[in-house]
Each structure stands twice: as C-alpha cells, then as structure tokens.
Amino acid sequence: MHHYIRSIGFAGLAAVLLSGCTSPPQGKTPYQPTADMAAVLAAQADLGAKPIDDLTPAQARVNPSIADAVLKVEQQRGMSTAPMPARVEDVQVQGAAGLLPARVYRPAMATPGPLPIILYFHGGGWVISTIDTYDSSARALANGAGAVVVSVEYRKGPEDRFPAAHDDAVAAYRFVLQHAAPLGGDERHVAVAGESAGGNLAFNVALAARDQKLPMPVHQLLVYPVASTDLMAPSVQENARAKPLSRAALEWFIKYYGRGPQDVADTRLNLLGVSDLQGLPSTTIILAQIDPLRSGGETLGDRLRTAGVPEETRLYPGVTHEFFGTGAVVPEGKAAVAFASERLKQSFAAVPALPAPTRRGRAVRARTAQGY
Description:
Elements: H1 2-18, H2 35-46, H3 57-60, H4 66-76, E1 86-94, E2 99-107, E3 115-121, H5 135-145, E4 148-152, H6 164-178, E5 185-195, H7 197-211, E6 219-223, H8 234-238, H9 247-257, E7 282-290, H10 294-306, E8 311-320, H11 331-349, H12 356-370
C-alpha cells in the first residue's frame, strides 16, 4: 500500500481518499506530551470529544475543542476561567463575496494610537471552528504585541469550498489596509497571522500582496501552518494518530474543503509547491513537536531562508497541534505567544510610522466615506 501511494503521488492519493477507499496504515507518535499538555488532551477526551474523521461537519463543529479543554483544566485547578482582559468589538469586514463577521481586539491597557494591526485567521481546516474558538490567541497577541488584532470569520467548506476562504482572506487584507485609521491602526504597520489553516491563509495573503502589488505586510506569523498536502511527510507518519490532529483528520479536511483531487496540487494549499518565495515579509514560524504539520512548517522555513526572507522557526517539544492558545495552563503556549509577540514588535518597530497629522486626516476621511 505504501509503495502504491508513493507511485501515484498525493494527487492520486487524494482521489483514492475522496472516493472513500481505505487510508494507509497509521503509526504511533514517538513523542510524549508534557504533563500540562497531557492534562488538556485528557480534559478534551473527558468532555466527550470524538475523532473528527468519524463526524459530519455539523457534528465536528460542536465537538469539544482544545479551548473547551483549557477551561476544564482551569476549573480542575481552581483557576479563574475569565478570558485575558482586552477591549473587544464585533464588526464586519468585506470578504470576497459579501460581508464577514470579525472581531477587533485592542490591548487591555489603553495606549495612544494609532497602533499596529494584526490581521488574524483562526484554524479549523477551513471547515470547523470560529473566532470564538480562537479567542484566547487573539487576546494574547493584542496584549503581547500591543496591537489591534482583527480576527476574521472567513467562509468554510463544505458550504463554501476552496478557494472561498483564501479569497476571503485576501479581501479582508484589502479591507484592513483601507480602514486602518478608523480601526485605530496604522496602514504601514499591518502584519498577518494565523494558526493551522489560518497560517496557510496568512501566507497566501502575503503572496497575494506581493503578486498583486498591494502594500506588503510587515511580518507574517505562521503558527503550525498547513504548508504541505503530502500525507507521506515524516511528521504525518510519526504523528498519524496524534491528538487533536491526526492523519485521518487531515484527510477529512481535504475532503470537505477541497472541490476534488486537483486541489491538493494547488499552491494555495500546497505552499511547498510555490516556486518563488523571494520578496516576502519577515516570518515567524511556530511549530509543535507532536503535530502532523511539523515537517511542512520546517521545510517552509528552510525554503524561505534560502530565498533570502528573514525567518525564524521555533519548535516547542512535548506539545501538540493547538498548543498556542493554551497559555493559561500550558507554559509552552505562553512562551510561544511571548516569542511571537516580540518578533511582531520588532517588525513593527523597523518600519517608520506615518506622521500624526496624516493619520488623523485619513481617519476622518475614512469614517466619513465608509461610515465605519
């Protein structure tokens, strides 16, 4: 079976998978989670979480998440379950096919603006999860980086299949550039960020900005991004049965977001197929050791550096996919947010800000013209 898969390539494998045939044998991860990460995984299981590949999209969307598990661990430890303080506002942004719900986070401590802006895309394989699921990450980045975080609820499959989410991400970036002032931000200080599928979207925004001659993001933060569609990658095989993300779950996401086998070769999904990576913004890649996506992220980092892009990858041992938002109970999550925030602040500081009078004028005109 393994020889057969290698001979037909991943595009052929996708055809097999989407036809409902049996997937390749799966192995057991050689890595062990830390005690805190294990506590979160155990809490998710205690809440009744089922393997996503056994569920329909509707069922998967109400399956207990890692965010739910963090709340349970906090309760078990007698900790406060209140979210990290931040100033939060629900808004709408323009997507590729209409308005999209979004949430704006500002640091809890009022800071004279305009502030940098982070356009953030949540994870969920382009099928599940919402801005609510990833609320902790957005709050942590707003406070850590001292920035306005705009978290966008892009369209998802199977209702809206590829490339709907990708088109929405680029449209949202255009919107944020145009509305930086009324958001309280500076259009010269806009970064993109995302986790998992959202990391893939953030990278696609940077590519689109370069290729469509839009103002470039000053930085891209890619947290365990979907960088490859290769199910034979070393980390996919090592962590085929990992939780909360397994090999079977990756197949499931492809099935419900992709339109067919041809999409797995599209470089918007398979970032490692992009031939030219020059001219992209400085990049931070956060990876988890116990994660099928690790190898793709590592290779992407290597290729960015080879292309001359300032890049730093940091791998966190003993943690799994989704650890970034677990900082309340998993120290590695807190450390990863701190590292990412510092990298973002360095990139913001390296770009001159607009003169204050220009900002104020643009803010007034934007509010008048757009009614934001």
